[in-house]
Amino acid sequence: MTQPEFHVLSRSDLAEVEISPETVISAVRRGYLAFADGDSRCPTKLMMPLPDQQRDSVSYSMLGYDGGIETLGFKTSYRQGTESPDKYYTTISLYDDRTGMPFALMDCERVGASRTPATTALIAEACAKPDASSVLMIGTGIQGRNTLPYLVATLPGLSRLMLYGTHPDGMRESHARLAKYFPDREIEVVEDVPAAAAEADIVVAASGRAAHPKVRTGWLKPGGLLISVSSKGVDSTALAEADYAIATSEGQLGVTGSRFDDGQGSARIDAEFPAVLAGRAPARNSPQDRVFAFSSGMIITDIPVAHALASQAIEAGRGQRVRLWT
After folding, report:
1. Which terminus of the chain is more solvent-facing, meaning fewer CB atoms within 10 Å of its CB: N or C?
2. CA–CA–CA angle 151, 267, 260 (5° rounding)
3. Global pTM value
4. HSE-up of residue 142 (Cα within 13 Å, Cβ side)
5. In whole angstroms, what separates CA 301 from the centre of its chain?
6. What is the pLDDT of residues 9-49, one digit of tens each?
C-alpha cells in the first residue's frame, strides 16, 4: 500500500512560482460558482481573539471543500498585531478526495495575497456601474499590493488608478506589481482620502489600523461601490449608509464584520456575492445605488489557488515530501 505523504511547500518554495492575475481570477471565479451551484462546502470560519489585549492577537480556522477540483482544505491563521507582517503566520493543507490521499501542506501567504485581490476584482466586475473608469485603493499591505493589476485585468476600462498608503515598502511594491503586468498604466498617489473617495467609481479599503479618516459609504458619488477587505479603515456606519449591501458570506460578516451590526446584534445585507456572481441575485437595485460590499476570505477561493500554486511548484521540483503517518 502506498504510504500517505504531504508535499510540504515553504514560502520560499512558492515565491518564484509564476501565476498570472487572469489565472487566479479564473480559479476564484470557478470556486465561487461551484459553491453557488451547491457542489462545494464552506462552513463559517472560526475566529478566536486571544486574552491579552495589548498583544492584539487573533487566530482563525477554516474548513472547506471545492467540488470543482474535488479537494478538501484546512486553513489556519495566527496574527499578533497589525503593524508587522513578520507576526502573521498562515498555512493550508489540501487533501485529494478522488484518491483519498493528502496532497500538500503549504505556507498560505502567497495564496491569500492572490485570492483576495481576485475576489475584489470579481466584486468590482459584478457590482460597479458599467462605465466605471476610476478606482481608489486604500492600503498597501500584503493582500492589497496586487489589487490594482487584478482590477485592471478584470476592468480594462479603468483609466484613473488612485492609491493611498503610508508604508514606503508597500507603496514601492504596489507600483512594481502594476508595472509588471501593465507597464503602460500609472498610479496617482493621493493624500486626501475623503476627497479621492468622492471622485472614484470604486473604492477598495484594505487598510489595517487606519492612518486616514475611516471610509464612509456616504462619501461615494451616486452609483459608487465601496469594497471593504475586512478593513479596520471602514467606518462602522458604512453598511447602514449603503443603498444596497452584499457580503461574500453573511455568516462571516457576523464573525469578522460584527462592527457593522445594526445595534441589535445583526447586520443587514441584500445578497451574498456567490449568488450575485452566478446571476441568481442582483448586484444593485438601480444605477444610482451606493453599494457596500464586505469581502471576507472564504476557503473555497483559497483551495483552487493553493492547488494551482502547489501543482506548479511540485512540477518544478520544489518542496519536500514528508510522511507524517509512518
Report:
1. N
2. 65
3. 0.93
4. 17
5. 9
6. 999 999 989 999 999 999 999 999 999 999 999 998 898 88
